[in-house]
Design brief:
The complex is a heterodimer of chains A (about 250) and B (about 250). By secondary structure, chain A is mainly alpha-helical. Chain A has helices spanning about 60-80, 90-110, 120-130, 140-155, 170-195, 210-215, and strands at about 215-220, 230-235. Chain A folds into two domains: about 5-90, no CATH class; about 90-235, Up-down Bundle (Methane Monooxygenase Hydroxylase, Chain G, domain 1). The radius of gyration of chain A is 21 Å and the shape is globular. Chain B is α+β, with helices and mostly antiparallel strands. The chains are: A mainly alpha (about 250), B alpha+beta (about 250). The structure holds flavin-adenine dinucleotide, iron/sulfur cluster (SF4) (2 copies) and FE2/S2 (inorganic) cluster. Flavin-adenine dinucleotide (FAD) binds near residues 8, 9, 47, 59 and 60 of chain A.
């Protein structure tokens, strides 16, 4: 049997909101809890960015999934109750337009007839990320990784899909996800490049210390057509002051 | 002589109503491959040995450690999990076919819904009201807990149904896996509270009485679950239950 240390949790994820009371405690039931910046879209579990910061303490991911679910459930119910109109009141044309958009995206991928193979691209992406964007990170390697991802994005457009079936077509759904993986790989790589310090599972030998003065903040990436845009938000430490992690 | 290539012969079928065909592939040999990594190699270069361009083979997999059951298929004539089928231990060419007792989706993917329906029919869960803290559950002795653990290893993979002569695409028999799950949930101190419901279901259509005792299931189970013991135990439990019901004990 082969043993290899593999990624088994994604620290970071979709941005979600929460509501805190005057003492800094979370207001259970608030429809803001676990709601993303897309109104009505909630995220709970590994998919959200909350709770873990730059590292996840052992065995705490399931805990945060449960906790997030317990907050998100009532939040969603209360959000739905507070709505002035339900989806029944939304004109069918809205859903129809979205269906057309999705079908068009599917059709575009079915029509890809280049020379690249999506599964090969995926393997190469994995190798680049494992070699350059794992725990130990160097700025020159991160920059090289971003250049490599941009080259993959270019090659993605020249994929040969091999399968235009409209039934159980794994090649198309994989290729669609592969594009999202490329977008996300850039977020992770460029976010790491900017953060010149070491924190949690982000270790830069050239910047070995944790630098709370400059970097005790959350990286926020926003999608734009020309690549991710970065902002930073303060970390809420009103209830618990951070200490050095010494194990 | 060291192998340079691995040959695979895959039964392909584009959909439930399409005709089946065989396609042969050859991939570069690497040590310590399993059938999933071989299939991954095939889809990186979806051309048959004759050089004909084809669609990437469609298969299912998830955990890659033989705990989810998604990758069950027939490998060299034996139903098993593709992720734990090591290429170095298989005769070449490796022949891959979908399971035959479930509706085919495409290529190596089948729909195991009948197994999940059977678990629902058998009430194979423990209802717990999650709205308030129930406190700690009753203690279980180590022997019971060891037995429960061995039964709980079932991953609904379908191997036991695939080899069972009583399971056909049209039969309603729930199969050995669900029978064994009734045993698991009925031996749990909280699960016991719904034992009657499960026994009633087990005595209903497609239940225990459809088992022909062929014992193929126990040999096919990759998790070595004592299925025939479970079937016998449920036979005794349903008999006791019927007698109790008759004589109002
Ligand atoms: C090997 C491994 C070991 C781990 N060990 C531990 C441990 O010991 N302790 C611990 O605390 N944590 C552990 N973790 C982490 C923990 O298991 C996960 O963080 C947690 O299970 C995530 O749960 P989730 O519900 O958020 O997401 P998931 O369990 O990933 O669920 C997401 C679901 O969404 C579905 N889905 C995806 N896309 C779509 C779509 N488009 N439409 C509909 N459905 C979709 C998926 O099929 C999936 O069912 C481990 C993780 C791994 C990989
Ligand atoms: S004992 Fe035979 S008939 Fe009964 S479930 Fe097992 S394989 Fe099927
Ligand atoms: S009892 Fe064994 S063979 Fe049957 S579904 Fe469960 S794990 Fe698979
Ligand atoms: S992938 Fe889960 S059992 Fe093979």
């Amino acid at each position: 049997m082969r043993v290899f240390p593999s990624v088994h949790y994604t620290m970071g994820g979709l941005w979600i909101d929460y509501e805190a009371d005057a003492s800094g405690n979370i207001v259970a039931g608030s429809p803001r809890n676990h709601q993303t910046n897309i109104p009505g879209l909630f995220a709970a579990g590994e998919v959200d960015y909350e709770y873990h910061g730059a590292n996840r303490l052992g065995a705490n991911s399931l805990l945060s999934c449960f906790y997030g679910g317990m907050l998100a459930g009532p939040a969603m119910v209360n959000y739905a109750k507070g709505l002035e109109r339900s989806c029944d009141a939304v004109p069918a044309s809205v859903f129809e337009a979205e269906r057309k958009r999705q079908e068009e995206a599917f059709r575009r991928i079915c029509a890809l007839q280049g020379t690249e193979n999506p599964f090969v691209l995926h393997k190469e992406l994995g190798e680049v990320m494992t070699d350059n964007v794992a725990v130990v990170r160097y700025n020159d390697k991160l920059q090289a990784a971003d250049n490599a991802i941009l080259a993959f994005m270019d090659r993605w457009k020249r994929i040969d899909i091999h399968d235009a079936a409209t039934w159980a077509n794994q090649a198309v759904s994989f290729t669609r996800q592969l594009w999202n993986m490329l977008e996300l790989a850039r977020v992770i790589t460029l976010g790491a490049l900017r953060r010149d310090e070491s924190r949690g599972s982000h270790y830069k030998p050239d910047f070995p210390e944790r630098n709370d003065g400059e970097w005790l903040k959350t990286t926020l990436a926003t999608w734009t057509p020309s690549g991710p845009e970065f902002r930073y938000a303060p970390v809420d430490i009103s209830l618990l002051r951070p200490e050095a992690r010494k194990y | 002589m060291a192998k340079n290539t691995i040959e695979l012969k895959i039964k392909r079928q584009d959909g439930p109503n399409a005709a089946a065909r065989w396609e042969e592939f050859s991939i570069p040999y690497k040590p310590k491959m399993n059938v999933i990594s071989a299939l991954m190699e095939v889809r990186r270069h979806p051309y048959t040995v004759q050089g004909r361009k084809t669609t990437p083979p469609v298969w299912d997999a998830n955990c890659l450690e033989e705990v989810c059951g998604a990758c069950s298929m027939i490998i060299n004539g034996k139903v098993r999990q593709a992720c734990s089928a090591l290429v170095d231990q298989l005769e070449l060419p490796i022949v891959l076919e979908p399971m035959t007792k479930f509706p085919l989706v495409r290529d190596l993917v089948v729909d195991r819904q009948r197994m999940f329906d059977a678990l629902k029919r058998m009430h194979a869960w423990i209802p717990i009201d999650g709205t308030y803290n129930l406190g700690p559950g009753p203690r279980v002795d180590p022997n019971t807990s060891a037995m429960a653990y061995s039964l709980a290893r079932c991953m609904t993979c379908g191997c036991c149904l695939e080899v069972c002569p009583q399971i056909t695409p049209t039969s309603t028999f729930i199969g050995a896996a669900a029978i064994s799950q009734v045993r698991l949930f009925n031996m749990h101190p909280t699960g016991k509270m719904h034992a009657r419901e499960r026994l009633e279901a087990l005595m209903g259509e497609g239940g225990l009485q459809d088992c022909g005792n062929a014992q193929n299931c126990v040999h096919a189970c990759p998790k070595e679950i004592p299925l025939t013991e479970s079937i016998a135990a449920m036979g005794r439990e349903t008999t006791a239950y019927v007698l109790k019901r008759l004589f109002g004990g």
